[in-house]
Every structure is written in C-alpha cells, then in structure tokens.
Amino acid sequence: MANLPKATLSVLISLTLLSFFPATLSFPRLRSSRFLGKFSSFNNKGSLGAPPYRYETRYFDQNLDHFSFSDLPKFRQRYLINTEHWAGPDQLGPIFFYCGNEGDIEWFAANTGFVWEFAPRFRAMVIFPEHRYYGESMPYGSHEEAYKNASTLAHLTAEQALADFAVLITELKKNLSAQACPVVLFGGSYGGMLAAWMRLKYPHIAIGALASSAPILQFEDIVPPGTFYDIVSNGFRRESISCFNTIKDSWDVIESEGQKSNGLANLTETFRFCKKLESTDDLSNWLSDAYSYLAMANYPYPADFLMPLPGNPIKEVCRKIDNSPNGTSILQRIFEGVSVYYNYTGNAGCFNLDDDPHGMNGWNWQACTEMVMPTSSSRNTSMFPPYDYNYTSEEQWCLENYHVKPRPTWITTEFGGHGFKKALETFGSNIIFSNGLLDPWSGGSVLEDISETIVALVTEKGAHHLDLRSATTGDPDWLVEQRAAEVKLIKGWLDKYHGRKRTAFDM
Amino acid sequence: MANLPKATLSVLISLTLLSFFPATLSFPRLRSSRFLGKFSSFNNKGSLGAPPYRYETRYFDQNLDHFSFSDLPKFRQRYLINTEHWAGPDQLGPIFFYCGNEGDIEWFAANTGFVWEFAPRFRAMVIFPEHRYYGESMPYGSHEEAYKNASTLAHLTAEQALADFAVLITELKKNLSAQACPVVLFGGSYGGMLAAWMRLKYPHIAIGALASSAPILQFEDIVPPGTFYDIVSNGFRRESISCFNTIKDSWDVIESEGQKSNGLANLTETFRFCKKLESTDDLSNWLSDAYSYLAMANYPYPADFLMPLPGNPIKEVCRKIDNSPNGTSILQRIFEGVSVYYNYTGNAGCFNLDDDPHGMNGWNWQACTEMVMPTSSSRNTSMFPPYDYNYTSEEQWCLENYHVKPRPTWITTEFGGHGFKKALETFGSNIIFSNGLLDPWSGGSVLEDISETIVALVTEKGAHHLDLRSATTGDPDWLVEQRAAEVKLIKGWLDKYHGRKRTAFDM
Question: Which residue among A485, B123, B204, B345 is the one 20 to 30 A from A154 at the CA level?
C-alpha cells in the first residue's frame, strides 16, 4: 500500500486543524488519546489558502496575568479586524466581536460566515481576536516556549482569555473614541462558552451574546456524563438500528482480532493504515473520533468543515455499513462506513493515525486544569465501548502527563452551573443559547429559556454551531429561520441600546 | 514631656488598627505617606479584647492563584462563623456573608453589629471570611514572608479575594448540604466594593448584596479627583466658615514656621510630639489624616470606631478651633482642634507620628497595583494644600517603592465604571448601595438608583458605613429608618428566593 499522495495529505492535515470543540473521548483502552484538542494548536496557514473574508491582521500587547501582578513578559495577541462597513463612533456603530476559541483565529474567521454576512446590514465593525496560547498568540515568543512545561502553560485559562478580550475591546474603543458603541459577542463551541461567560462577567463591555453550541453545563454532575456519547449514538440509531448495532458489536471483534497472532497486521490491512497498528486501542480511537466528529458535522448539506462530507453524513455512513454485500465482514463494513468520513473524496490511498497523543497541546492542558468534563459511555444506550467516568484516574493521568492537578469544581464556582436557571432568571440579560439537537455537545448546553432575554434557540436537526456558518443555497428553511430569529434578537438589543442612548443624549 | 502612659498607648495602637477604607492622601509635600492603609495589616488581637459577638474561628486552605495553574503553595484563610441561629439546609436558612476588607477580620466583625444583630431574625448563619494578605490569612506562612517583595505580594488583588470568597462559600455549603441556601453579601468601604462586585460577578453564589460606603466609581475620570477632599472640607465648612479658613490658612503658617531656624523644634512643642519633627510634611500629614478620619467617623453619637470621639466630632473640632481665647495662635488653635481626634480622652501626654511610611503594607500595594484612585486637592474648594493629580509621579513612586507598575484602567475594565448605570439598568439585580453624604467616600459611590432592584440609599447626615454598625440608643430616626429599609429589601430578596424555591419544589 502506497503512502498518501500529496493532495490527500492536505486532507489529513486539515483534520489536524480542526479547531471546533474537541470531544473528551475517554475510554479505558484509549486513555492516552482521550482529548482531541491536540490538533488545535497547530498553525493552519498552509492549508487555509486565501481567507474568504476581508480583514486586517493586527497585534495587541497583553498582560500574561491579569489577576495578579507577577513580573511576567507581555505577549502579542493577534486579532483580525474589518471596519469597512462600520457606522463609526458618532452613529454608535456596533462592534461584532467573536470570542476566539482553542485554535488559529483565521480558521474560525473562515468558518463563521454568519458574523461577516450580517455585519454590513448592522453597519458593524468585525473583530476576531485570537485566544491566548493558540495560533500566533503565543506567550514567551513561540509555541515551543509557551508549551514548554506546566509553568509556562499556567496562564492558559478561560478567565485570562476573557480578560484579554475585555482589555482589547476597551483599548480599541478608546483609541477609536468609540467608548459608547455597543459590542455584541459571538462564539461557537468553546468560543460560545466564552461569549456567554463574557456577557455574564463583563456586562459593561458587551450588550449581548450569541453563544452557539456552548456546553457550559457539561461540568461536574450537572448533566449525566453519558450525554455526549449517547447523543452521538442516537445520531446513528435514528438512521438505522442495524448500523448502531454493527458499530456497537465491532469493538469486541476488533479486540479479539487484535489478540490473534497476526491480528494487528490484519487490522492494519483491513483499515488501510500506512503504518502497522501498534494496538487495537489506536484503531478504536481512530474510529471513535470519526463517529463523534460525524455527529458534530452532521449538517443537512455537503460541507467541508472538518473533512469534505456529504449532506447528512451519518446517513451515508450507515448506508455503507448496512448495505455492504452479503458476507461482508463486520470490520469491512465498519471500514466502508468510516471511509465516508476519512476518505469521502476517494483520494486517500492509506491512512495515518494521529500524531503523538502525549504531545503537549492547548486543549489537553485546559481539560487537565479547568475544563474537566466528565464523560462516560453507557453499556445500554451508547454504541461506544462502555466506560464509567473515574475522576481519580483522570487526575492521575494529568499529573503524570502534564504535572498539573485539575480543579474539577472551579468552572462551576467561577461561572455557575448548578441552579443555572434559578441564578439567572432574575439576573442578566441578552444571551442567545443556540443549539442543534444532533450535536453531541447540545446535551451540556442551555436548551430552555432562562428568562425573557436569556433565551434558547433549539433546532431538532441542527449540528455543531451550524448557525454560525455562512448561508448556503442548501440551507433548509428551519436553518434560515433560526438565523433570522438570531438577527431579530440582536437587532432588538441594538435598537434598545440606541434608543436609550438617544434618549440620554436628548436629556 | 513624658512619653505616653500605657493606657494611652492602646489608643494610639488602635489607630494602627483602623481597617476601614484608607484615604489615598497625596500631597506633594506628603508623598511618602500618602496611603493610610499601612495601618491595616497589623494584627489587632492585643487591643481588641474579647470579641463582642460569638463565633468560631476556622481555617480553609485556598489556592493562592485561582486564575492560573502556577505551582504555588496554598494558604490558610481564616474565617469566623456562627451557626447558632441558622434555620438549617432543609428550611433553606440564609447565609449572611461579610466580604472581609483590608485588615484583621476580627476588627470588622466587631464593628459590623448590623449583621450580627439581624441574623437571628432571619435565622441566618453568619460568616466573616478574612481577606487574603491581612490578619492571619497570610500566604507563604507569615506576614514577613507574604510581604517580602513584589513577587510574594503579586496575588494580593481584589479578584483573587473574590474568588477566595466564592470557593469558600461553595465548599462550606457543600459540606453542610446547604447548596440551596441563599447567600446575602455584606460589606463596608473596600469590603462594600467587594460585596457589590461579588454580586455582579458571582450571581450564582449570592442572591444580593448590601454595599455600604463602597466607592466603586472612584477610578480614572469617572468622578472628579477632588471629590474626596472637597467632601472632607465641606464637612468642616458646614460647621463653621472660620474653622474651614483657619485650617486652610494653617498650612502656610506651618511651612514658614518650619523654615525658621528653631521652627521644627517649636512645632514639635506646639503639637506635643514625643520625638522631634523631621519635616513639616510629617506634621501636615498627621493633621490631614485627622481631618479625613474625622469626616469618615463624623457620626451623630459618641463612638469608639477609630478613636474615642464625641458625637458630631467635626462640630467639636471646629468649636475648639473657633473658640480659643483671643490671641491664641493659629497653630495653637489647630492643635486644640485635632486634639479632639487624637486625644479626646485627655490621657495623651505626647503624640507619636506614624510608623515608617515606607513599610510594605497591604493597602499600599493594592493602591500601587489595581486600586489607583486619582486624588487631588482643589485650590478653591478644598481646605487642604492644593495638589493636582499626576499619574506619572504616582507610577514612579510605586515603581521605586514597590517595584510594581500600576494598572490604572484595570478595575474599570474588570468591574465597570464608566456608564455604570447604563450597563446595569437592564442587567443584574439585588444590590443596595448605602451612603452617608458626610462620608468623603460617598463622592465615588453610587448615589442614585440604577434599576428597580439595584438601589441607592442615601442619608444626608450619615458618615462612613454607619449603617453597618450596631444599633445604639443614640441612633437618630433617619438611621433607624435606613437600617429598616435595608432589612426590608433583604427580606424581599429572601422571600422571593424562598417563594420561587418552594414553587420549584412543588413542581
């Protein structure tokens, strides 16, 4: 089997760029590779090509530690900015501010067409700031230095990132004499969590937030730990029970095949890996990743979000799994299925496994410090190998691999979680939590209205922050309506702000 | 002149305990002693005597850095707790939580009778946690180690203190199975700022806050920098214009006296200092401190808050200044006046100046990092020596003395300030900003209602967080009414919380 041709390599590389919210895949046999966020710290410039939207790239010197006065070097935060359509300070032109997540900000800018497309209508400025420790926004001057050890990574936290955003907006507005201009926050996935938290923590800085696919309740015991994999599994079961069962049965087949003397070689051949498999865990992980990402990217139209995929890709995967000729082995069926994900273009000759799963990367660090999201796989409802969540072993893993002890209750202490609705029904305003129920992250998100102005927009057939993507001709009506509802709410915030402001000026 | 007798020493020592909000006195000639918070880091156990209220003293291990994962040692936070009257978790008994300020928590507990006196009526638990780096709550094991240098002091910030409070409450509630019990925050002065900020930043942790004398707007250019000294000055002018003028004229007299060959010796004798004055600045500072503290403690009844004082002490000071026999020199009049402050008991034989004004202390550090409150003294409206605020020289002073660079715009970025009302009129709820207009800190406080539930209670004749003190027989009607209004509002928050909670339980 030959290695991948060059064109296909870029497809695989693009997987390494996936900067959407990473699943915390954690199975006992897959311990070493449970976080997928490791992909997100790589620079994507090579594969992105020309950016689809126009912006200037600028840099801003940030304090590494906003909450203490340690004598640390500043770092350069990158941000993308477009003021072409901005109404300017005199007319209180709005500022659309995307809360950058765990990856290169240009990738998010390219995949958040919604913000770019609606900004001109609002005569809004657009800003995409990069999250510290990702892309080019590296403390200590380089990725290598920033990711050197637990001490250099210490300041990679959500609160510091939010403070970066707060300082950046405040300074930018001051420089533009735009202090009175309203800021609207946007974010998807982890960026959506940041957008919601930012509105709650910095109401004086932003008048509202659209938080798309933001699983801010995926902590501690707020939602059942099996939620994520149950939703992925349901995505397959709703297409076909036999597809679900084939996948569910496949793990034991893989396991027993692996125990045969020639087993790993056979599996390597069946799944067309470029290099020989070293363990069945690597294969199981590779498959689990595919299923999870398929669920997130289960969009109603063909898209090239993580990988080039057909519309409703899970339907396609299950079609392949179910419709193989009689006598096709279960492993061959599985291979045909995941090829929809890994090789939809048909160009891949063989497949490479992920890079070193032990490599230091941003999301792994975050998951080993603050972002402790309990994850399990239920024997009854999940098609994945069963796994009971065990905090102690997670902690052990983090101590061994990152020399850091997680603080599993910190996020809910800092941002709330338990009793979220009760706390906010008489506090706060202007947040939209948008979710598609096909998205496995929807299980940890806010799915019901909290108050009149903190609202949930839920679509039955949406997947991971689909609403933030650019409009396409393939958009179903419900998606068009969802975006229209979001625009209407944002317009309402702005009208109210401008109205009050004008009244204030009249006084 | 003999040194002070022992009994009087304790009076002077008690000044070193004053842990209410320190004035940022800053005159060009008084540069070295511009922050008074230096008193507040001393332990007051010796002078406090038996605490007037009953509580247990407990300790809690806190992370030194909540917002980063640096490998720092934990520290023991002290807190005082009383559960005698608590209704318990089943009845959702409230928790009254005082946000400890920049000093020994036992001193605040002793001077915040309001919380203790109303807790039984609400069947509330009472908790007084100590602020990090004050009292016994010392990082690195001791005051000496914690205050060693800029690096050890780095984590003395308001945000870290708020996070301490949040973690402490959350853990305490968990241990008591009291997660659903409502928390009400209290705080006076800097503690009032913390209470208001805590309600805004941690709405999921506390249902409301009584923030007394909390100058959260005393930053940057939100209020005029002359506000503080103008209010102090007005406190004297309203008693007597001649008193105001005598004080205003005295600075030049002191200055020219000091330039005479025997001047400092003469001044030392006139003001009865135990040791010879080294400069007129020391004297001016000593006098300015007295006037400022007199304004803060200008209570309507005799009290022993900072020093033993008569009711309406400024009236008494001015009576002394104005009514000295004909021919009494201006300096002698001034001395008679401030003796009301420094020696009301009449026991002092001579006076000691403050301790080393360069000594590291908590509030000085905070004022040189986050708490940058511009202060000036107007030639026209202030009775103090004129002084224009100059940030550059403040920064220079901090760099030289504490090796730290202030971040003068950080507090307003983190907590808001400009457009405070606009930001919160449709966001947040349940905060009482109480202020007395005699209090010089009222000028930087919230004096008008922000919304229906973020309200201002203003009394014309109140001084520094008078409402938080215990009830006395000398309380005027307006003070009784102010406290009743506060209790009614807090009861409203709790009733609403309990009502909603019961409804939730019924569902």
Answer: B204
Say whether B154 and A71 touch across the interface (CB within 8 A): yes
Distance between CA atoms of residues A173 and A176, nearest Å: 5
Whole-angstrom distance, CA of residue A313 vs CA of residue A320? 11
| Sequence-separated (6 or more) residues with CB below 8 Å from residue A484 | none
Sequence-separated (6 or more) residues with CB below 8 Å from residue A13? A46, A47
Give the range of the structural domain holding residue B34, as residue numbers without chain letter: 1-507
Domain count, chain B: 1
User: End-to-end distance of chain A based on CA atoms, in angstroms?
Assistant: 78
What does the CA dihedral B98, B103, B105, B108 come to, rounded to 10 degrees? -60
Residue A49 vs residues A42, A458, B336: alpha-carbon distances, Å? 15, 33, 81
- Write the CB contacts of B278 (distance below 8 Å, at least 6 apart in sequence): B264
Dist CA B4 CA A503 (whole Å): 63
Contacts of B422 in chain A (CB under 8 A): 500-501, 504
Question: For A167, which of B63, B153, B413 is closest by C-beta distance?
Answer: B413
Residue B437: give its domain's CATH number: 3.40.50.1820
DSSP state of A268: H
Residues B37, B22 contacting (CB under 8 angstroms) = yes
The residues, ordered by sequence, that sit 6+ positions from B391 with a Cβ below 8 Å of its Cβ are B372, B374, B408
Catalytic residue flag (residue B189): yes
Q: Is the confidence at residue B15, as pLDDT, over 60? A: no
Over pLDDT 90: what percentage of chain A?
81
- Tell me whether residues B63 and A407 touch, CB distance under 8 A: yes
Tell me the pairing of strands B431-436 and B454-459. parallel
Amino acid at A227: T
* Alpha-helical regions (H) of A297-442: 313-322, 330-342, 362-367, 391-402, 410-415, 420-424
Judge whether B85 counts as a catalytic residue.
no
Element (H, E) at A232: helix A227-237
The residue among A489, A253, A326, A163 whose CA lies nearest residue B68 is: A163
Closest in B71, B416, B427 to A429, CB measured: B427
What does the pLDDT read at residue B361?
Answer: 82
Alpha carbon distances (Å) from B413 to A206, A356, B219, B370, B410: 12, 40, 11, 11, 5
Decide if pLDDT at A25 tops 90.
no
Q: How many CB atoms lie within 10 A of CB A445?
A: 27
CB atoms within 10 A of CB B2: 7
List CB contacts (< 8 A) between A63 and chain B. Answer: 407
Determine the Cα–Cα distance for residues A469 and A465; give it in Å rounded to an integer. 7
| pLDDT computed for residue B303 by the predictor | 87
Task: Give the C-alpha separation, A472 to A480, whole Å.
Answer: 10
Task: Considering only the beta carbons, identify the residue of A67, A69, A415 that sits closest to B150.
Answer: A69
Taking the C-alpha atoms of residue A96 and residue A443, their distance in angstroms, rounded to an integer, is 27
Q: How does the average pLDDT of chain B come out, rounded?
A: 88
Taking CB atoms and an 8 Å limit, are A419 and B180 in contact across chains? yes
- At residue A304, the pLDDT reads 82
pLDDT at B466 over 80: yes
Question: Bridge partners of B211?
Answer: B187, B433
Per-residue pLDDT of B309-365, as tens digits, reads 999 999 999 999 999 898 999 999 999 999 999 999 888 889 988 654 445 589 989
The pLDDT assigned to A355 comes to: 52
- Using an 8 Å CB-CB cutoff, list chain A residues near B402: none
Residues B152, B128 contacting (CB under 8 angstroms)? no
Contact B428 A424 (CB under 8 A): no
Q: What is the pTM of this model?
A: 0.91
Q: What is the mean pLDDT of residues A281-289?
A: 92
Please state the ipTM of this predicted complex: 0.90
